[in-house]
Design goal:
Blueprint (H helix, E strand, L loop, with lengths): L2 E5 L14 H11 L3 E7 L15 E4 L2 E6 L10 H19 L6 E6 L5 H11 L2 E6 L5 H4 L10 H4 L1 H12 L3 E4 L2 H8 L7 E3 L6 H10 L3 H5 L9 E6 L8 H10 L6 E6 L5 H10 L5 E5 L3 H8 L4 E4 L11 H8 L4 E3 L4 H8 L3 E3 L5 H13 L1 H17 L2 H20 L1
Parallel strand pairs: 1-2, 1-5, 2-4, 5-6, 6-7, 7-8, 9-10, 9-12, 10-11, 12-13, 13-14
Antiparallel strand pairs: 3-4
């Protein structure tokens, strides 16, 4: 039996309250195809920064071996402690790899700036092949954090990071990515290896069951009441500076003259206190903050919403956010600020409306377009459900299995 090791310092152990992570789903599909899969994760949860509770070092779940690696605890996403966290993690991963039989293939989550050096040293010594799966863009994301007077020097400032990524990509035997935009970064460097887009995807079966079985219990639980003429707009996800949260609130303020347009905010993050204070200070009657909701409750709520928000700042590096797939599977069109892959799909497949990030009046106009054109919105709802079948996670992660087969067959040759 061929062994595949997946390395991701940010996966969690499976939980009933959270959607199965990308690498759990990839591992699950690979196990079903007869591979032995080891998924290396950290003992520190990226979500809540607490230690993962486990009984043994190695946890088996649905045939997947979860190898929980000791790492360094951190709190801030942007800090020297997070870098230390990754370095300690990969050091202990390599120790475990070296104490066991060399795997047939490694799947590595990228960004991997702070762990790539150790991985490259290991694969050079063992000659093991690896696939790089690009799910986010570092150091491009770091550039957004620079003061304005330094932005013209960003390539120079982060040149060592770009070189690390380039070296990692050039050594890979295959590539996958969560969007065409991301995959292109790898394939332009090394075009003649197996490569494919594997979207985050959605669990169509589970989402459909939740939607069909919901009878209003979630509204009672959240103390919400939707009147017949109410129009509900929902933002779900991280409350952070990169997500254009303040523009949502500005647009809500502008639209306060239409009392039946309501904004539901579900999520947590650095701006949570700001959100609560805004609603309290301005006595907002059209914005409702619901806090963090587990995936199943969030999907239940989507049944009663009219449109979803995928709102990001202008310079965002995001291409295809996870929340979009859940919106589509729930029959929700979106109002979107991203101009990469998702922005194109919105236009090409009639999935909603685009607006200019950080422009409250542009967002307001998009909301009014959806609010004033119910027939058009209903057509878009049908289009989102159709698109969701393309993004069904079983189909998407089946693509990844084929990629693995292609890489391994190339290795045999």
């Amino acid at each position: 039996m061929r062994t595949i090791c997946i390395i991701d310092p940010y996966s969690d152990l499976p939980s009933e309250n959270l959607r199965p992570g990308r690498y759990h789903q990839i591992a699950d599909q690979l196990v079903k195809k007869g591979f032995y899969v080891k998924l290396y994760i950290s003992n520190i949860s990226h979500r809540d920064k607490n230690k993962i509770k486990f009984n043994h070092l190695n946890n088996f779940y649905n045939g997947i071996e979860y190898v929980v690696i000791e790492s360094y605890k951190y709190q801030s996403h942007i800090s020297i402690f997070r870098i230390l966290y990754e370095k300690v993690f990969i050091r202990n991963v390599i120790k475990d790899l070296e104490s066991n039989k060399t795997p047939d293939l490694i799947i590595l989550r990228d960004p991997a700036i702070f762990i790539s050096k150790s991985i490259l040293k290991y694969v050079k010594k063992t000659n093991v092949k690896y696939i790089v799966d690009i799910i986010d863009l570092w150091p491009e994301l770091f550039e957004l954090l620079l003061p304005r007077f330094l932005t013209n020097y960003s390539n120079l400032i982060f040149s060592s990071f770009y070189q690390r990524r380039k070296k990692l990509l050039l050594g890979a035997s295959g590539f996958s990515a969560v969007s065409p935009d991301y995959l292109n970064i790898a394939t332009v460097l090394k075009p003649n290896v197996p490569a494919d887009v594997v979207y985050w995807g959605c669990d169509m079966k589970t989402i459909s069951e939740i939607i069909d079985n919901q009878r209003g219990e979630i509204l009672t639980e959240l103390s919400l009441n939707k009147k017949n003429n109410d129009f509900w707009i929902i933002y779900s996800g991280t409350l952070g500076n990169g997500y254009d949260i303040k523009t949502i609130f500005k647009a809500a303020e502008i639209l306060s003259y239409i009392p039946n347009i309501k904004f539901l905010i579900a999520g947590s993050g650095p701006l949570e206190a700001w959100v609560r204070n805004y609603i309290f200070q301005y006595r907002s009657t059209n914005i409702f903050y619901l806090g963090f909701l587990p995936t199943n409750k969030l999907i239940s709520l989507f049944k009663y919403c009219d449109i979803g928000l995928t709102t990001y700042i202008k310079k965002s590096t995001v291409s295809m956010p996870i929340k979009a797939y859940d919106y589509f599977a729930s029959g929700l069109p979106i109002i979107n600020s991203l101009h990469k892959n998702l922005g194109k799909l919105v236009l090409e497949q009639n999935l909603g409306y685009n607006y200019e990030g950080e422009d409250a009046y542009s967002l307001k106009n998009a909301i009014l377009s959806s609010f004033n054109n119910k027939n058009e919105l209903n057509v878009k709802k049908c289009c989102t459900r159709k698109a969701a079948y393309t993004f069904n996670q079983v189909k998407q992660y089946g693509i990844f299995v084929k990629l693995v087969d292609n890489v391994l067959s190339e290795f045999v040759k």
